[in-house]
From TrEMBL:
Pfam families: CAP. It comes from Spirosoma liriopis. It comes from the Bacteria. InterPro entries: CAP_dom, CAP_sf. This is CAP domain-containing protein. Residues 56-195 form the SCP domain. Gene3D superfamilies: CAP (3.40.33.10). The lineage of its organism: Bacteria, Pseudomonadati, Bacteroidota, Cytophagia, Cytophagales.
């Protein structure tokens, strides 16, 4: 018997048991859904949809690069969500979380969720959720008591990305960075967890609203996986 084939099959069976429906779709089917192409409501974002869009955009990029797609993993997902939420709550941007020492670094965060990961990596990103041009203006609307962001050339308001646009934009930024690209396209990783959390009180600062995003990559220890 080919034990490696059996191991891969058992991984797939195990991963589908606790996998949300949005992660069971392939990226083409996922991005064909109309919900992906609605603008992000920055006051009340659909974080479940955003997290799934980041996951699917990652696999879309891997498929385009002829790399194996990654499977959803609940432990990596929880670690990613914890860190994205912490970066927004405590207003920092780093792999190191000095506000919660039990989750101080990627290894600790993932080990808090599972001891079965044999190899891991983390990408983080901070990107504007408004589709601004390279040069944009800011004005304060006294009626709405909110800042607005304008394309200086056309004098039109810059609008939020859709979920699909934002996820793909973030993944492209990671691909443009050699270190992040190496993690994203690493063929040794088999599983993935992703999360994005958005800035609190959007439109209340001159700085355009933004998201802080996390990708957690992992591959399982064979013996640990078999004993689960």
């Amino acid at each position: 018997m080919n034990w490696w084939v059996l191991f891969q099959f058992l991984q797939w069976v195990s991963s589908t048991k606790n996998t949300p429906d949005l992660y069971l779709l392939n990226d083409e089917v996922f991005f064909a859904q109309s919900s992906c192409h609605q603008p992000i409501n920055l006051d009340q974002p659909d974080t479940l949809l955003l997290d799934a869009a980041l996951f699917q955009a990652t696999n879309e990029a891997r498929r385009a690069a002829k790399m194996p797609i990654l499977l959803y993993n609940q432990s990596l997902d929880k670690a990613a969500r914890h860190h994205a939420q912490s970066m927004i709550r405590f207003d920092f941007y780093s792999h190191q979380n000095y506000h919660q020492l039990i989750a101080i670094n990627p290894v600790k965060r993932i080990e808090n969720q599972t001891k079965s990961i044999s190899r891991l990596a983390e990408n983080i990103g901070q990107y504007s959720t408004i589709n601004t041009t390279d040069w944009y203006g800011v004005r304060f609307n006294r009626r709405s008591k909110r800042y607005q962001y304008l394309d200086l050339e056309s004098q039109t308001l810059c609008q939020p990305y859709t979920y699909a646009q934002y996820a793909r934009y973030a993944v492209q930024q990671w691909l443009n960075s050699p270190h992040h690209r190496a993690n994203l396209l690493n063929p040794s990783f088999t599983h993935l967890g992703t999360a994005g959390r958005l800035s609190i009180d959007p439109y209340q600062q001159r700085q355009a609203p933004f998201g802080r995003l996390v990708q957690n990559f992992g591959s399982f220890n064979l013996l640990a996986q078999e004993s689960r």
